[in-house]
Amino acid sequence: MTQPQPLSFEFFPPKTAEGAEKLRITRRQLAQFKPEYCSVTFGAGGSTQDGTLTAVLEIQSEGLAAAPHLSCIGSSRVRISEILQQYRASGIRHVVALRGDIPSGMLDVGEFRYANELVAFIREQHGDWFHIEVAAYPEYHPQSNSAEADLRAFVNKVNAGADAAITQYFFNPDAYFHFVDEVRARGVTIPIVPGIMPIQNFNQLSRFSDMCGAEIPRWLRLRLQSFGDDTASIRAFGLDYVTELCDKLLDNGAPGLHFYTLNAAGAVSTVCQRLGR
Ligand code: FAD
């Protein structure tokens, strides 16, 4: 029997004791789906960086594989070296390497300008110790000058030594398949795992999508808007749509699924159960 494609779950570092307890409960609920690994985001500009390692160590102590994110904007080679040493000393062998979003007001972008420089630095300092994931943008990064420039930047980042990529979330599966075709035609062979965002709260999703350049297709936006304040209907519709999206992706060759859990288990668990996990 062939193995089902692997799942992974992304969390953010909690800021309070209550948040940490909520995350523990979330992880316990999601552990039943046997994730390949769980990743923990890393705040660009210093906001939550210690929390990333703390959360990763907790995940490891629970017997799950964990991957910290590491963003380089605003940082120095010395600081990134220290963090990598700390990760390595903690037995971590898997990182998600990012540029990070430039925090407003940041004047000094530091010694790394783009994620490909971070990937090259990790390889230079640590050889093959780390399995390196990078970010991919099927609908293109909001700051890129053109689709072609963004594709070139992605290929560059892969050639710097990435082992796999996780995509920004999207709701149109064609965007993902088109992106994969484009980068395969440019010689990229690494797995490109779709990032999946559950649909829970329309206003929040809409704000976030505008910021990160993920498109909510017009028909989907209008459909979700038509539910108004009826959150139960938004969630029910969202679960149907996201499950269908995951099914299409897996049936057509996606190598796995990476869920943006937002530290909550409910919607992600339902989608995983509906996928037969
Ligand atoms: P890059 O790959 O460096 O690309 C950034 C932009 O620069 C793109 O427009 C690209 O086209 C362009 N570019 C790249 N190289 C060049 C070049 N040589 N010359 C000119 N232009 C170039 N952010 C966080 O702060 N913390 C997190 O934990 C985090 N986790 C994430 C996880 C995933 C799966 C994803 C998809 C995103 C995550 N982000 C996170 C957000 C991410 O940091 C932002 O999207 C950021 O703006 C870009 O990061 P990147 O690593 O993709 O950058």
Topology of helices and strands:
Elements (H helix, E strand, L loop, with lengths): L6 E5 L5 H15 L5 E4 L8 H13 L4 E6 L5 H13 L4 E5 L16 H12 L4 E6 L10 H13 L4 E6 L3 H13 L6 E5 L5 H11 L5 H8 L5 H21 L5 E4 L5 H9 L3
Helix pairs in contact: 4-5, 9-10
Determine the number of helices (DSSP H or I, runs of at least 4 residues): 10
Bound molecules: flavin-adenine dinucleotide
| Helix/strand structural class | alpha/beta
User: How many strand segments?
Assistant: 8
Helix content: 40-55%
CATH C-level category: Alpha Beta
As residue ranges, the low-confidence spans are none
Mean pLDDT: 95
Q: Write the CATH fold name.
A: TIM Barrel
Q: What fraction of residues sit in β-strands?
A: 5-15%
* Cα radius of gyration in angstroms: 18 Å
The CATH level-2 architecture is identified as: Alpha-Beta Barrel
Overall spatial form:
globular
Terminus-to-terminus distance: 15 Å
Largest beta-sheet details: 8 strands, parallel, barrel
GO molecular function: FAD binding; methylenetetrahydrofolate reductase (NADH) activity
Keywords: Amino-acid biosynthesis, FAD, Flavoprotein, Methionine biosynthesis, NAD, Oxidoreductase
InterPro entries: FAD-linked_oxidoreductase-like, Mehydrof_redctse-like, MTHF_reductase_bac
EC number: 1.5.1.54
